[in-house]
Amino acid sequence: MATLDSLQFEMERRVILFKPTTTMPDLSQLGYNADPNLIVSPSTPGEELLYYSPNNTRYVNYDASGNTETEWYKHSQPNGWLPLGGDSSINSFGTDSSTWQLNYAEGVVLRDASGNLRVTAKDNTLTTVYVGGLVIDNLTGILQAQDGSVYVDPTANLLKSFEGTLPGTGVTKNFIVNHALGTKRHIVSIYDASDNQVYPDIQRGINDDTISFNIPPDPSVDHEIIILGF
Fold first, then answer.
1. Could you tell me which of 73, 121, 123, 209 has the fewest CB atoms within 10 Å of its CB?
2. What does the pLDDT read at residue 92?
3. What structural domains and CATH numbers belong to the chain?
4. Which residues contact 111 (CB under 8 A, 6 or more apart)?
């Protein structure tokens, strides 16, 4: 015979799993079928059940065929959910820093701490953009993405490039190329009309390189020059 203690143990170890077809106390279905993080102001009994559920509650939403699309678990209050198997160190339902977060289950979800900005979702079910106290600063650097966060790294080197032509005249052996990269930290590649790489003498400069051929290129042969640097 089951005892009160054994029943309590079974109840505590049982994982609560909600889904859109979960039967509510009034015999209706839960009904909600989307990212639970998008519930900001619960307006139905099903949304209230998810919003106020305890941590470690599970929830699944379905795709158009009725198959499980994502399984979520309640990570933090009041309504912080993470995809099952996700990294709990990643705040995928908002941000508490200067970076915005990417929700890896439902496409792009950008939202600041007070809800001033919200951009969702990959299936276009929510396309309204709310802009309140949003500030976009002047940022210089490389746009990086790591562990769901997108940020600007001002210490990263910006790749610079130049592409041009060395026209064959049958007379000119030395070509001065104004690449204007502002740095000698670059590499130079030169190709003939058949896309074969050739190796004339190269003298690099901060803004100008000198390309010297042993024999002037024929009038019918133009060479392509590509410069990459940082």
1. 123
2. 42
3. 13-153 (no CATH), 160-229 (2.60.40)
4. 93, 94, 95, 101, 117, 118, 119
